[in-house]
Amino acid sequence: EKLFHNRDHSDVQMLNSHQAKVITDKHTAELFLSRYGFIKPVNWEEIQFEDSDASFNDDFLGDLKDTIQEGSSVHRSRDANLDDDRDDRNSLTESQAFISALKEFQRVSGLPATGVFDEATKEAMNKPRCGVPDNEIDLDTPENSTASDTENSTNDTFSQPDSITASNDTSRNSTDLYDPIFNITSPSSSHDINTDGQMVNISVNTHQSEAVRR
Amino acid sequence: RKRHLATIVSKSRRKRDLSETGYMAFSKRVLKWRLIGEGYSSQLSIEDQRYIFRMAFRMWSEVSPLDFVEDTRSPLEEIDIRLGFGTGRHLGCNQRFDGTGQEFAHAWFLGDIHFDDDEHFTAPNAGSGISLLKVAVHEIGHVLGLPHIYRSGSIMQPSYLPQDSGFEMDWMDRKAIQHLYGGCKGRFNTAFDWIRKEKTPYGEVVIRFNTYFMRDGWYWLYENRNNRTRYGDPVALQVGWRGIPMDGVDAYVHVWSRKRDAIYFFKGAHFWRYDNENDQAYRQDPEGHRYPKLISEGFPGVVSPIDTAFYDRRDSRIYFFRNTLVYAFNVEANSLARGFPKNIRDVFPPVVSRDHPDGNIDAAYFSYTHNAIFLLKGTRFWQVVGSRDRWRRPFLPRNGLLPHKEVDQHWFDICNVHPTALKL
Known about the structure:
Chain A is 36% helix and 5% strand. Chain A is mainly α. By secondary structure, chain B is α+β, with helices and mostly antiparallel strands. In chain B, the strands form seven sheets. A five-stranded mixed β-sheet of chain B has the order 4-3-5-7-6, with helices on one face. The chains are: A mainly alpha, B alpha+beta. The interface between A and B is large, with 82 and 86 residues.
């Protein structure tokens, strides 16, 4: 139980002494890749239980994971003949598994997928991150997603004005993006879209919008 | 201990179901959360921690049909999402934290979220350390069923990216969570474009407008350009629209012609006139009229309460809707137009015979963005045939209603938040 002596907890801060293991070499990298699901441990699928009680799974598998991550991390097919060619096959599969896992990590981290444990990869591995494994990697990775312009493409479905000017709307306590600017004094509207009196002449201003803050 | 826990949990908590994506999702819409007493952080005050988590849950609520409520009283097994801080081996969790650096938090299927208190968590916009808000939003995303998404800009990226300013859910994250829980649906009291005149530094008069949706006592500003509501909405009505009924209105009407420019709100048997300059309802307008006024006084011949109303600049009439009747009010003559009230089908005939709202409209909304009139009812809307439609297809009836569409497929992410999260 931590004891608070100083009101600002400064004495407790001093107590925080342990640091996460920094990833510096291939072995710690392999541990990282195993821990976050880039390398599947031995017969992973075989030992998952069928029943739906996930917490039980996790408790049991959690312990097992620890041991597995420390031990061998080699893929095995269910009907491989385990005895006679275990050693040479293992060493070959092991480095292959490591390289392909490393490539996968590099790919999803936006790094060149070289399979080489270089400085950039080391730096990426040492970033603060979520402890949930990545084995449910979402295929929605940068290469096959045009997300950055999806929003605009969605805009295409609307007859959108070209641009917008933000203004300070203090009465709403926010500086917002606003919809098109009507310039009722400029007759040469480039966007005269109606004639039946229901609308006004709309000319569209070309200012760009400002970043929006909540 | 495990078996006991399993029996408790299985008995009292509704099982999660696998949505078609194969990811687990809650099957109820209001979820309880709690920051566990023995899991407080030693770095932030308890109030800060709870405020940040309330904000994090609200951010998910703003883009999904889920509501989150902090529950500090119910028995623990009734809490859907439990949050706590710890270092090393913590809170009975089987995954030890690794100290400062690398793993800063994790979340488990049953809704437990643990934060590594060896990390330097800071309040939003602190500019240093790891934003607790950002990490909380990420971990809650896991609990709600989202995996890691390696896409720049996604809140579900596994690595922490320092954020120089506030972060928000981008389009794809919104679609991901809505893929699990569906879009935000619901009835609106009214929808309108609020128009204001302002002077530019060059003395030029420009007109601005914003689109607003109102539902009960709160409202959203809708950014048509970005196909979403303003970040941080909904907001309580009394915050942004002073002087009108706080529990919502029936209609918003903007009478705008060469001679008139007046905005009215309607509720029950009364109406208010809104003062754009001072951004509040008039008590007494420049013509000396006191508000609220009876609708029967201001609009003789129109009965109340009304369902909704809108002003049609083409014929300078206000169309009031009530049940299956439409009252067209001639503003210049200050009287009902001849022949009204009429049945709504006669005034707004269906283009496809059986596809018609048949009265009891929620909102009649003229959108400057789409240059069209929309009649909203429930989760659907009908667009009124415009002049351009009739130019292309002359056979279309005047003021005909085109086949209905879904509101949430046209105006996105207009989502409720739990009332307790409204005042953040």
